[in-house]
Design brief:
The complex is a heterodimer. Chain A has a single domain, classed as Orthogonal Bundle (Cytochrome-c3 Hydrogenase, chain B), CATH 1.10.645. The longest helix of chain A has 29 residues. By secondary structure, chain A is an alpha+beta fold. Chain A is globular and about 65 Å long. In chain A, the strands form 3 sheets. In chain A, strands 1-2-3 form a 3-stranded antiparallel sheet. Chain A has a 3-stranded antiparallel sheet with strand order 6-7-8. Chain A has a two-stranded antiparallel ribbon with strand order 4-5. Helix content of chain A is 47%, strand content 14%. By secondary structure, chain B is α/β, with parallel strands linked by helices. Chain B has one domain: NADH:ubiquinone oxidoreductase Nqo5 subunit (Beta Polymerase, domain 2, 2-Layer Sandwich), CATH 3.30.460. Chain B is built from 3 helices and 7 strands; from the N terminus they run αββαββββαβ. In chain B, strand 3 and strand 4 form a beta hairpin. The chains are: A alpha+beta, B alpha/beta. The interface between A and B is medium-sized, with 36 and 33 residues.
């Protein structure tokens, strides 16, 4: 049969954002593919060179609206490294707690999206409804649902509101029961599993070499989580276990994300137990950063996020370079889908949790 | 994950033993699980090959460019999953001839990072399998992240 190129995107239900997956098909089989990105390129790295350090925090939030706290967090960590600031203990706990809540919120958004991708609208409604609870928690913490502007160089903006712990524990208790329902809805659904099992195979060796990180890497059986192997903030004081899966396919990626949500609930509970009850939450940073370079990396919900900062002694960064996990994962997407059928593409690519804001920057 | 585990000191010793002249280790910065160095661009590929094959640095986190007006820098962040070390290699490139060997043949994860750096800075990565513009249109005439690139691309 004649081979032909088709475009899935930039406007396509599969893409979740503006990008284009060019696919060469032979009948129904994918023989070659090429992702085309850049539709959302805003020149982020150039824009930040004209802004002073605190002004960049809300911009870092907008790298990805789904996990904005983690992005402003990694930015603040980088600047703190350059300025040589030590963050107060309580602020570290609040940051780690927000990270985990953000991880749950982000995974729920992914679950909603993958639900509609695979024809399970109930999943979409359930996940969106429960995500709203975590957005409510963020709203009571910092006033915004999605782009928080909450992290600060030297700490966090404000302490948790009254009754925060009570509300959070209620939310977690409720959410844990809901997770069991998700399992029944998806894990025990033959139809859903048929669309995931055995697709998008990537061995551990290849996954490392092509630069997969985060849940996608751990679904290939690699035991690496920056929270565990290169701990930042207070993660080395917590006792939790890493979620991995050995199946190396789309089903494994699904399972790892579901397990991570459950583990995040445990981490938040432990943080609430160990968090100092009072104390400073912020130190005052200097206006200018010294000349030099700094680098910080952390476990974003999607993988490894890293920022590399070059300061020239002034109040603005000379260069701020961002490693986006999705940027690298998308570059490897042809290796995931080549050889499979065209109907498998939404399942395989949806499981990567695509976010174009951080990919194109 | 059958790689051996090395400490930062062991990695330092092995690098300075193998590349005595062309790699300068930064001993002033003593963060845990981090290692900083500057390398000559002629040895970059061999250094990376040595890191990957002998020391188990199996993951390329980031390749980025910096424009210092009198020179370019390409900066590599490379991670070892077995030893839990992230190291930073800074390579100086002359401003009039920004060329360096590509590390994509070693780590496929560097592919788009090098393409993006070429796209934004015009740094040419020799040996890259597909070095063309990534985020910007293919007929773009200038390199917007260069410091001498004013508004409108003049």
């Amino acid at each position: 049969m004649a081979e032909m190129w088709i475009n899935m995107g930039p406007q396509h239900p599969m893409t979740h954002g503006l990008w284009n997956m060019r696919i060469k098909v032979d009948g129904e089989t994918i023989v070659d593919s090429e992702p085309v990105i850049g539709y959302l390129h805003r020149g982020w790295e150039r824009m930040v060179e004209d802004r002073n350090y605190p002004q960049i925090i809300p911009m870092a939030d907008r790298l990805c609206y789904g996990s904005s706290f983690t992005w402003s967090h990694v930015y603040c960590m980088t600047v703190e490294k350059l300025m040589g600031i030590e963050v107060p203990e309580r602020a570290k706990y609040i940051r780690a707690m927000s990270d985990e809540l953000q991880r749950i919120g982000n995974h729920l958004m992914w679950l909603a999206a993958i639900g509609t991708d695979l024809g399970n609208l109930t999943m979409f409604l359930y996940a969106t409804r429960d995500r709203e609870l975590f957005l409510d928690m963020f709203q009571s913490l910092c006033g915004a649902r999605m782009t928080y502007n909450f992290c600060r160089i030297g700490g966090v903006r404000n302490d948790s509101p009254p009754n925060w712990v009570r509300d959070l524990e209620r939310t977690l208790d409720y959410f844990e029961k809901r997770l069991v329902e998700y399992d029944m809805l998806v894990d025990q659904s033959k139809l859903f599993r048929m669309r995931m099992e055995g697709l998008g195979y990537m061995s551990a060796k290849d996954a490392i070499n092509v630069g997969l990180t985060g849940p996608v890497l751990r679904a290939s059986g690699v035991k690496y989580d920056i929270r565990h192997n290169d701990p930042y903030e207070i993660y080395d004081e917590l006792d939790w276990h890493m979620c991995t899966h050995d199946a190396c396919d789309t089903w494994a990626r699904y399972r790892v994300r579901m397990m991570e949500m459950k583990e995040s609930v445990n981490i938040v509970r432990e943080i609430l137990k160990k968090m100092p009850k009072s104390g400073p939450i912020r130190v005052k940073p200097p206006r200018n950063a010294p000349a030099g370079t700094a680098m910080a990396r952390m476990e974003d919900p999607r993988g490894e996020s890293l920022m590399y900062l070059v300061g020239d002694g002034g109040s603005k960064p000379y260069r701020l370079s961002v490693r986006s996990p999705l940027f690298v994962i998308l570059s490897a997407s042809p290796k995931l889908i080549n050889g499979y059928k065209i109907a498998d593409v939404p399942s395989i690519l949806g499981m990567l949790d695509v976010c174009m804001g951080e990919t194109d920057r | 994950m059958e790689n051996d585990t090395y400490s930062v000191e062991q990695v330092k010793a092995k690098i300075s033993q193998t590349f005595p002249a062309d790699v300068v280790l930064d001993d002033g910065r003593t963060e845990t699980r981090r290692l900083y160095m500057a390398a000559d661009r002629s040895v970059l590929f061999n250094l990376c090959k040595f890191l990957k094959d002998e020391l188990g640095f199996d993951h390329c986190s980031l390749v980025s460019g910096v424009d210092w007006c009198d020179k370019f820098q390409s900066v590599y962040h490379i991670t070892s999953y077995s030893s839990n070390i992230t190291l930073e290699i800074v390579v100086d490139l002359p401003h009039d001839e920004p060329e360096v060997d590509s590390v994509t043949p070693l780590w496929q994860g560097a592919n788009w990072h090098e393409r993006e750096t070429f796209d934004m800075f015009g740094i040419v990565f020799k040996g890259h399998p597909n070095l063309k513009r990534l985020l910007l249109p293919e007929d773009y005439k200038f390199f917007p992240m260069r410091k001498d690139c004013a508004e409108g691309g003049q």
